[in-house]
Write a structure and sequence with these properties.
Layout lengths: L2 E6 L3 E8 L12 E7 L1 H11 L3 E9 L4 H9 L3 E2 L2 E3 L4 E8 L4 E4 L8 H15 L4 E5 L8 H13 L4 E4 L3 H9 L1 E4 L3 H8 L6 H13 L3 E7 L5 E4 L3 E6 L11 H14 L4 H15 L13 H7 L1 E2 L3 E2 L9
Parallel strand pairs: 1-4, 1-9, 2-7, 4-5, 4-6, 9-10, 10-11, 11-12
Antiparallel strand pairs: 2-3, 7-8, 12-13, 13-14, 14-15, 14-16
Helix pairs in contact: 1-8, 4-5, 5-6, 8-9, 9-10
Protein name: Phosphofructokinase
Organism: Frateuria aurantia (strain ATCC 33424 / DSM 6220 / KCTC 2777 / LMG 1558 / NBRC 3245 / NCIMB 13370) (Acetobacter aurantius)
Pfam families: PfkB
Length: 322
């Protein structure tokens, strides 16, 4: 199998709380709660490892509470290549209601100094050695600005490895400057990248094609929640519709989708097979807390229920003004 490095610049402990319904300003009794070391790149790595790949994890991690992360990495047999920095890694709270709605309360993260960032840059050549692909997932921590992140993406791309990116907020603006191989936004993140509302599926599909035309990515995998996912490569667009499942927690669904799609690409599968597999595994993921489980007893059934639209020609977006 392949060797992949998954970068997480702004990891977190995820405190996942389930409750019947969220009523602001009142006292709640949770049905369950758990706190796990997490971060989007770490979640991606966990799925890739379960799919049989060798995973190296990189990024920036607070040294004061790093040990639970180390325990997770050892338990799931992922190589720890994080740069540790002073302070404690943040805690994010995920409130999951019975109807599937999830509210996120995300901390800002550790403030990264110029010296911290330089240590990451210095470690990068060794971290990339022997890898087959690079994943960069998650938000930017305080202290890492758009320009620095864009320059880092450019340096990663210069390695010649395929760079898969899932970011948000200021990180999306860096994608405009750097360009990546595969970009995996959700609807909100695609709106952030384009700077306008995308009110329906047609607008989202046009926007994905526009991203390719502007050179910000070579391919776009657009996650559409309950509507599934689209994969656009500039010549055609393929959409997969997920099976119906009982939604408990959607936090890791996008990470699972990216990991499973990358697995398909690295395995040399046809695009349709990769997207169907990724959509099924993301559907498996939302039934519980944590990343998707390809060893779930009913995964073959979920995969069989994925419906693929016939590939359609790309939708040409209107020309942008100078």
């Amino acid at each position: 199998m392949a060797k992949i490095i998954c970068y997480t610049l702004n990891p977190a402990f995820d405190l996942a709380v389930t409750l019947p319904a969220l009523r602001p300003g009142t006292v709640h009794r949770a049905q369950s709660s758990r706190m796990d070391p997490a971060g989007k790149g770490i979640n991606v790595g966990r799925v890739l490892r379960r799919l049989g790949h060798a995973v190296r994890l990189g990024g920036l991690l607070g040294e004061d509470n790093a040990e639970p992360f180390g325990q997770l990495f050892r338990r799931e047999q992922m190589e720890d290549a994080f740069v540790t920095v002073a302070g404690s890694t943040r805690i994010n709270v995920k409130l999951a209601e019975a109807d599937g709605r999830v509210s996120d309360l995300n901390g800002p993260g550790l403030t990264i100094t110029a010296a911290d960032w330089q240590r990451l840059l210095t470690a990068m050549p060794e971290q990339l050695a022997g890898m087959d692909a690079v994943v960069v997932s998650g938000s930017l921590p305080p202290g890492v600005d758009v320009e620095a992140f864009a320059q880092w993406l450019v340096a990663l791309r210069a390695s010649g490895l395929p760079i898969w990116v899932d970011t948000s907020g200021p990180g999306m603006q860096a994608v405009r400057q750097a360009g990546v191989h595969v970009l995996k936004p959700n609807e909100e993140e695609l709106e952030q990248l384009l700077g306008r509302a995308l009110p329906d599926t047609l607008a989202l599909r046009e926007a994905a094609d526009e991203v390719l035309r502007l050179g910000w990515a070579d391919q776009v995998i657009l996650s559409l929640g309950a509507e599934g996912a689209c994969w656009c490569d500039g010549t055609s667009l393929l959409q997969a519709h997920p099976p119906e499942v009982s939604v408990q927690n959607t936090v890791c669904a996008g990470d699972t989708l990216l990991a499973a799609a990358l697995h398909g690409e690295l395995s040399g599968w046809p695009r349709s097979r990769s997207l169907a597999f990724a959509t099924a595994l993301a559907a498996e993921c939302v039934r519980h807390v944590g990343p998707g489980d390809p060893d779930a007893a009913d995964f073959a059934s979920l995969l069989a229920q994925v419906r693929l639209d016939a590939p359609s020609p790309k939708v040409s977006a209107p020309e942008m003004p100078e």
